[in-house]
Every structure is written in C-alpha cells, then in structure tokens.
Known about the structure:
It is a multi-pass membrane protein. It comes from Planoprotostelium fungivorum. By secondary structure, this protein is mostly helical. It folds into three domains: 2-42, no CATH class; 43-480, Growth Hormone, Chain: A (Up-down Bundle), CATH 1.20.1250; 481-516, no CATH class. 73% of the residues lie in helices and 4% in strands. The protein contains 23 helices and five strands. It has a five-stranded antiparallel sheet, with no helix packed on it. Helix 12 packs antiparallel against helix 18 (369-398) and helix 16 (340-360) runs antiparallel to helix 20.
Amino acid sequence: MTSIRHAVSGKIQTSLTDPLPETFTLTNSGVTILILHKPAGTGARSAMSSKYGAVFASGMALFSDGYAIVGTCIMLIKRQYGPDVLNKSMASALGAVAFIGTIIGQLTFGWISDKMGRKFGMLSATAIIIAFSVLCALPYGLSAQHLLIALIVFRFFLGVGIGAEYPAGSVAASENSEGEGINKKKQHLLFALATNNMIDLGFVVASLMPLILYVIFGDSKIEYVWRLSFGFGALPPLILLFFRRKMKEPERFQKDSMQKAPIPYLLIFKRYWMPLCGISITWFIYDFISYPFALYTSTIIDGLVADQSLTQNLGWSTFIMCFYLPGATIGAFTVDYLGPRKQMIIGLLLQALFGFLMAFHYELLKGHVAGFAIIYGLFLTFGEFGTGDNIGLLASKTGPSAVRGQFYAVCAAVGKVGAFVGTFVFPYIQSAVGGENSTLGQTVPFHIGSALAIISAIVLFFLTKELPADCMAVEDANFKKYLEENGYDVRQMGAQDSELEESLLGGDQEERKRMSHLEVSMNS
Length: 524
C-alpha cells in the first residue's frame, strides 16, 4: 500500500488524488522517499518573474552611466571656488576623465565577461561604482586644488566601473531577453527598457538631484549640493547588488561560451568586421552628439538667458532632460515591430531635422527659452527613439555568445571615445566661433550634430543588418557551423557540468540547502 506522510505535520495521506503538500515522504512496499514538491503553476510563475527580473537586474546599473552629474557639479564647484581655481583645463579634465576610465573598463571587462562569466563581471562593476561614488563625495580637509585632483582620480575609477557594466550587464540583459518563456514580441522591448531607459532616467535624475538639493541648502551651503549629488550615485547600484548576488549565468552564455576554449579571433574578425565597424562608427557619432549636450545643457541654457538664477538654470536643464525618457520609452515599445536597424535610421533622420531647425532659427528662439527647450528636447527625444534604444541592441545581439562581451565592448568603447572627444572639444568649438555665449557658439554644435546624424544613418544602412526575434540563437548556430567549416572543434564550447550546475542554482545557498535535504532511504 502507498502512503504519504506530511514531512512537517506528520499527517498520513492515503489518496494520491488529494492535493499534495510541498514536502512529504512517499512510502510504498517498504521504500521511503522524501520529496520536495511545488504546487502546479507556482514554479512557472516564479520562473517567469525570475526571467523578466534577470533582464532588469542585468541592465539597470547603466543608470550610473546616465547619472552624468559632473557637468552640473563643475558649475557648482566653480561657483564655490571661483573660475581661477576651476579653470577651463581643469574643468575639461574633470568632465572627461571618467570617459577614459569607462573605455578601459569596457575593454578589460569585455574579456572578463566572456572568460570569467557575466555574473562575476556585473558584481565587480557594481562594487567599483559604489565605492568610488562614495569617495567622490567624501574628500574633506584638502585645498581646492588637491580636492579637484582627488575628484579627477576618483572619477577615473568610477568610469572603470561604469565601463565594466556595458560588456557584463548589458550583454547579460540581452541574453536573458531571449530566455525560454520570454514573449518573442517583447525581447527587444525588455532590453531597451532595462538599459537605455535606465541611462536616460540617470540623465533626468542627474539634473533633478542638484536642483532639489540646491533648493534645500541654498547658495550658502553649495558644497553640500555637489557632494550629496555625487554620493547619491552609490545608492541605485547598492540596491541592485542584492539582486545580482542571486542571479545565474544566462542560458545562452552557458551553451555557447568559450570559457575553456581558445578564441579564434582571426576567424571571428573575418565574419564580423563589417557590422563591428558599422555599429562602432554609429556609436561614436551618437555619443559625440548626446553626451556633450547632456553634460553642457546647463551651459547652453545659461548662454540662452544669461540673467536667470541658478535655480532657473537647473530647472530648465531638468525640463530638457525629461525629453530623453519619452523617446526612449516610445522607442522601446515600437522596436520589436519596426526592427532596431530601421528604427535607428528613422530616429537619426528626425534628430537631424530638429537639430537643423534649432540651429537655423536660433535668433527667433533666443528670447523664448520655453520654445527652445521644447525643440531641443525633441532633438534629444528622437536621438533616444532611434540610436539610444537600438545601438546597444545591435552591439549585443549581432555577435556570437562566445565573444559577445568583447564585441559589445569594442563597439561601446569606440562610442565612449566619441563621448570623450565631444566633451573635450565642445568648449573649444564654442570658443573658436566666438565663445559659448555667442550665437555661433550656441548653434555650431547643432549643425555638426545634425550633419553627423545623417552620416550615421547612411553608415547604418550599408554596414548592419536587421535583428528579428531569437536572433542570438540563430546566430550562435550559424557561428558554430562556420567554425566547423573552418576546422575549429566546437565540442570545446559551452560550460562544464559543474559550471552548468552553478548557473542553474545561481549560487543560491538556500536552494542548495533545499536540494541537500532530498534524501532517499531504503527501508526493508
């Protein structure tokens, strides 16, 4: 006779048709088995929420990249110490040094992500961002000059952590977006919401946070404003760290990685050089346009209406930054239907249109800051609808899983070179045409940005391809076939059994304890 004993209550159940408890012992013909059981549907719901959660936990740390607080903080520090201490070269160094760190972090962690795992890369990146965001807020008791030097050093290492997020977090988000059970019509949507929308939210908060703090502390305690603005950057990744500790490696990475295999770089370059170049050039142009404008929005507004208060300046900057989010959000919901490549081209051409409108009608807009802010905001909106939402998609889903981290890292690093160049040359371009407050100083950057947007659309059209649903699984299969045709032993690819088990359990100690309690005892 078969009997079921509840492991907790000890109650005996003789019918197999009654609902089963989560933990019970099954006895039949002298054999007793302890069974862990989940009611039907519970596991499915949990697994589904876990899959969606994995996408967001992987990508959301890019908020730290969008939290480009340094432009506003430079303005506040200059207000505290004066322009003689924070001269143009020091301000440029403080604004650009994080980009150098980001490039180093991207390239270094591209390899780490492919060889040591996405999870290791994400945890390392999060720890670095937390540590150096706090350090940027802390240096006291230093002269103004030494304070600025300390900030430059700390922001460099903060950049390394932010750079590490790209090939670790974004790549993991892309791989998780094609996990089993994910709606095929929402794969690109999830990635865009988890990555670019987080960057854009960072842009908005980076403008809003100093405004709130300035209203609280005022001009007499302006030091508190920039210190707390820097320090706030540690809070989101600190929260995210809790969730990342429980994550597992993406299934796509586990199946097709080259963790234990040599990477045939020459074969890979021969197959992927064209999309690599196309995506890299497009990303360079996008960052050359977007990051300087994000960093120097306060300067642009200040030059437009020179006699406004600091509160008004920060308020208009926040208003303009809010235009990033509608473009990114609308783009996220349309990308699965239009396709990343097509949507990028549409966004680039519309961005160019509004950039030229702003440049050619500057004199008309000069006395109407609200009108300028709206058109400038639309310029930024279409940038996010197009390139912002989709450049990361192309970079993360075009290459194979075996080198996805490094493929993405190269594209993103070239993009950050564009951000660095744009941020560094932006003030000099303005100076060369009459200064940042002159008409040409305000309009030439938009002429340049709009022209580059058109060039970017052309490059994209000829050098990249569209990405349908489940494109990574298809590309991995084609890549393996390509390697086999060229004499590479694909049996080396994928995780070992022990690594796969680690991935499936996700390092979750509670799950391991549950599994260890599954004991089978034979009673005669």
